[in-house]
Every structure is written in C-alpha cells, then in structure tokens.
C-alpha cells in the first residue's frame, strides 16, 4: 500500500502558533471598564493585576488597583475620572505606584504623584520608591536614643521625642496642632534633619500660609511639602501620606535623619472611607471599612531608626489627629493612639485660658523619648511633670478651701510661675541650652520671688543676658549634655547676678 501523505503534527503546531496574535497573549493584563463614577472604576478581565499596581487608562490617565475581587478589579483614578467612560480598554503596567525621590525635592512643593505645584519648573528625579512598602523588621532597627529637639519647652522637657519615634499630636480644631509641627520643622534648621510636611485635605490658603511661614524662617531649605488639597480627589488624599513616607525613607536609607508630619490623618481616614463606600466594601463602626486600623498601622510602622548595618538613618513621624469636642475615645483617635509611641494632647480649656502651647501634661506621654532626652534636661526637668500635675489638682482644690497651709500655698505659687515659664510664642523655638537654664531657674525655686506677671519679661531678658554675657555656660551645656555640680553652681550665680539688675 502507498504511504499516506498525512501532515506532520509538528508543522500543525507551528502553524497555529504563528496565527496567535500578540493581543491574545495580553489576556489577564488588559481589561474593560465596566463602571465609572466618583473617582472609582470597576474593571473586568484584568485578572493578573496585583494590589497597588498602576493601571493605565486612555488619555494618559492612571489609576491604582485597590480592590481585587473574583470577577473584577476596583481601582481609584489618579486624575480626571470624567474622561474615562464605560467600555474603555485598560492596561496593567506591571509596576507598583511609585514616586520620584532625591535631594532635588528639597525646597519644593509637590503633589502626591511627585508633580511640582510651585513655579520652579520640573523635577528631574533619577530614583523612584514605591509608596507602599513593608516596614523594616525588628532585627534591622536600633533603639531610639537620640533626641529630636522640637524647640518647644513643654515638649522637650516633659514629653521628649526621639529620632525614629512616632509621636501623635492630638486635639480639637484650631488649638495649635499644626503650629507645634511647624515649630519643630523650623527648629531643625541646624540639626541636619530633612523635613517632609504632608498636607491632607487642607485648604489651599492654609497651605500657602504655611509655606510663607517656612520661607520667612528659612526653613524651606530643608523641607519638602507634599500637598493634597481639600479640592483634590479623595484618591490623591488617600495616597498622600504614603508618598511623603516614601520620600522620607529615601533619606533614611542614605543614613540621614528625616522627619515626616501627617496633617492630618483624620482627613486621610475620611478620604479612605469615601473610597471604600464607593467600592461597596462592608462598613463597620462610624461607617469606616474593616481595614481602617491597617490603613494607619502600615504607614506609621515605617517610621523607625535603622541599625548601623543599614547606615543608621532614622524616620520620625508626627501624625496629627483632629478630635471632636475633645473625644479621645472616638474610633480613629483610639486606633492611632494604640499604634504610636505616645501622644501630645492639646486641651481647648487651656488654649482659651491663654496657656499656649495648650498641652495637657496629664494626658500626654512619650513612651520612648525619655531614653533619648539629654542628661542635662533630665536633671532640671525630672520633677517638673509631677509638680505641674500636683499644681493643677491643688489649684482646683484651692478654689473651695477657705484656708491653706503655707507649704500648699508655696507649691501653688511655684506652679503658677512654671505654667508662665512654659508658655511660648509661635514660631520661636528655643535651643536646648536655653531651655535648660530657664527650667533650672524655675524648678530650683529661684523665681519664687519674681512676680507671676513678670515671668515672661524675665525670660526674655535673662536669655539675652545668658547669650551675651554667659556664653561659656551655654556652650558647656551644649557640649557636655549634662550638668556637673560646678556648672549648676555657675547657673545659680548667673540667675542671682541677673536678678539684681532685673526690675
């Protein structure tokens, strides 16, 4: 029988492979817009996308995948969502959402995508960091033992902050939370700390005011501002703090010290709630989605101080939370309090009574900063916190008591002077040596014979006297970081000498 001329199987396979189009190979990496609205897009067919991956829409609009469901993907749009329509083709980029980082950002105002918002031209960043990143492990960290001086007497003496710490600033609206943060930025002028201020949901006029203040005090020379304004989409407000954190991590990885301020995380939570509700995620307490705790924990855990093997850099975080009528037991405040290493609580009653900064010493705490406080400050401020707490309780009791013994009266009088001494005007941070000599004068009882209403005037003139005539003492405090018996005696004599000329 003649041999049949059946086609070779191998040839058949090669023929089929030739006919496969490049488009069919992209199945899983492309999808179609099924639904669009309120800055959120639902996409079908995008099977191989990963969480936080950038997605490309037509008209050069990008988004981020945040919801990975069985049959579709939910994404937030980082641009004008009105230009996207149902049926548009969508493409996965294969890379996580990133932001340009580097020294060229210093002194600039950018949006959460790294685009400049000032008039200084484009920013040529050579390196990109993903905005979402796993926090360094416990083995890679170094204990917090170096102070981050805020320049604010009440904080540096009683609620000290260390480099690599996460310290929450919490209080009602309009009582000085942002002012504390701005003072801290200004005080880093000569400390070689790069500051990143992240504005979330703030009014444009407010951000402009902050920029103007920083420029006036020459603080923009070491500051980067990441702004997601109140008029910006919720998606940009959502990614803003992560973008600011990524910029700070760049400097930390280089072995430098960085400070990032999130102003504020209440508005960040509101933006995330808005996105989650549109994505139809199950809502829980106060309509927030179930992963609201993870939202802030994965952000704040990235702040740390690295060990010497990783160049020993640090990233300090000062998140801000706005409370309603002083309610610390609300959902977001309690969540963030549990994540951070302490909190600075600003009380409205203190603020409106003229005590500024309005820090409630009893409800404020720093869980790790004490180990980072310089020894000189520990020596002079050791009893300050307790004395102030006792003063407040005694002052409240004294309102109802007809007669008080002499020791109680003395304690109240000293407390009144210490309260006056801890008052501080806006945007005038103090060096640590100035704080030490002032607090020492108060806690040692050398101001007991100075009238309460003259404490402010005494402070101003005494510091002028110390900086002009007693430079050796100031230099020794700064250099040694601790107070010897001899140095304490010199400080005592300086107060006595000055009081003779003070009127």
Largest sheet data: 8 strands, mixed
Any guess at the CATH architecture of the largest domain? Answer: 3-Layer(aba) Sandwich
Q: Find the count of extended strands (DSSP E, 2+ residues).
A: 16
| Helical proportion, percent range | 25-40%
CATH 4th-level superfamily of the largest domain: P-loop containing nucleotide triphosphate hydrolases
Q: Using the coordinates shown, work out and report the CATH topology of the largest domain.
A: Rossmann fold
Overall shape: elongated
End-to-end distance: 130 Å
Mean pLDDT level: 91
Whole-number radius of gyration? 29 Å
Number of domains: 3
Q: Please identify the structural class as seen in this structure.
A: alpha/beta
How would you sum up this structure, described in words?
By secondary structure, the protein is of the alpha/beta class. It has 3 domains: 70 residues, Beta Barrel (Elongation Factor Tu (Ef-tu), domain 3), CATH 2.40.30.20; 275 residues, P-loop containing nucleotide triphosphate hydrolases (Rossmann fold, 3-Layer(aba) Sandwich); 123 residues, ATP synthase alpha/beta chain, C-terminal domain (Lysin), CATH 1.20.150.20. The chain has 16 helices and 16 strands. The chain has an 8-stranded mixed sheet with strand order 8-12-11-13-14-10-15-16, with helices on both faces. Strand 11, helix 4 and strand 12 form a beta-alpha-beta unit. Helix 5 crosses helix 6, helix 10 runs parallel beside helix 13 and helix 14 crosses helix 15. It is elongated, with a radius of gyration of 29 Å. The chain starts with 8 loop residues before the first helix and ends with a helix. About 2% of the residues have low confidence.
């Amino acid at each position: 029988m003649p041999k049949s001329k059946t086609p070779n199987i191998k040839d058949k396979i090669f023929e089929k492979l030739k006919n496969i189009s490049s488009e069919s190979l992209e199945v899983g990496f492309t999808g179609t817009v099924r639904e669009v609205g309120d800055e959120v897009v639902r996409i079908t067919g995008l099977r191989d996308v990963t969480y936080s991956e950038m997605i490309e829409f037509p008209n050069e609009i990008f988004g981020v995948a945040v919801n990975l469901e069985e049959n579709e993907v939910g994404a937030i749009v980082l641009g004008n969502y009105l230009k996207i329509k149902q049926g548009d083709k969508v493409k996965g980029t294969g890379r996580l959402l990133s932001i340009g980082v580097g020294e060229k950002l210093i002194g600039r105002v950018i949006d959460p995508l790294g685009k400049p918002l000032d008039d200084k031209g484009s920013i040529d960043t050579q390196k990109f960091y993903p905005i979402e990143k796993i926090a360094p492990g416990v083995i890679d960290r170094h204990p917090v033992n170096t102070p981050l001086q805020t320049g604010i007497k009440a904080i540096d003496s009683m609620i000290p902050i260390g480099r690599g710490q996460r310290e929450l600033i919490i209080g009602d609206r309009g009582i000085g939370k942002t002012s504390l943060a701005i003072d801290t930025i200004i005080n880093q002028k000569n400390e070689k700390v790069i500051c990143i201020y992240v504005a979330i949901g703030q009014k444009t006029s407010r951000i402009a005011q902050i920029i103007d203040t920083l420029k006036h005090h020459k603080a923009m020379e070491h500051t980067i501002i990441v702004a997601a304004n109140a008029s910006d989409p919720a998606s940009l407000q959502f990614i803003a703090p992560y973008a600011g954190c990524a910029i700070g991590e760049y400097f930390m990885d280089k072995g430098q010290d960085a400070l990032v301020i999130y102003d504020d995380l209440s508005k960040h939570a509101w933006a995330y709630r808005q996105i989650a509700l549109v994505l139809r995620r199950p809502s829980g307490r106060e309509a927030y989605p179930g992963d609201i705790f993870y939202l802030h924990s994965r952000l704040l855990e990235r702040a740390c101080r690295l060990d010497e093997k990783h160049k020993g850099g640090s990233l300090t975080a000062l998140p801000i939370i706005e409370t309603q009528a002083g309610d610390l037991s609300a959902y977001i405040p309690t969540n963030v309090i549990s994540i951070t290493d302490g909190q600075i609580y600003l009380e409205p009653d203190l603020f409106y009574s003229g005590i500024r900064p309005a820090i409630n010493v009893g409800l404020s705490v720093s869980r790790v900063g004490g180990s980072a406080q310089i020894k000189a400050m520990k020596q002079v401020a050791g009893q300050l916190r307790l004395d102030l707490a006792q003063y407040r309780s005694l002052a409240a009791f004294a309102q109802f008591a007809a007669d008080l013994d002499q020791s109680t009266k003395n304690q109240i009088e000293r407390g009144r002077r210490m309260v006056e001494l801890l008052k501080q005007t806006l945007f005038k941070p103090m060096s640590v040596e100035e704080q030490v000599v002032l607090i020492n004068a108060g806690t040692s009882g050398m101001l007991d014979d100075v009238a309460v209403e003259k404490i402010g005037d005494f402070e101003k003139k005494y510091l002028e006297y110390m900086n002009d005539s007693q430079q050796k003492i100031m230099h020794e405090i700064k250099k040694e970081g601790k107070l010897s018996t001899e140095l304490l005696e010199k400080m005592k004599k300086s107060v006595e000498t000055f009081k003779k000329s003070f009127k």
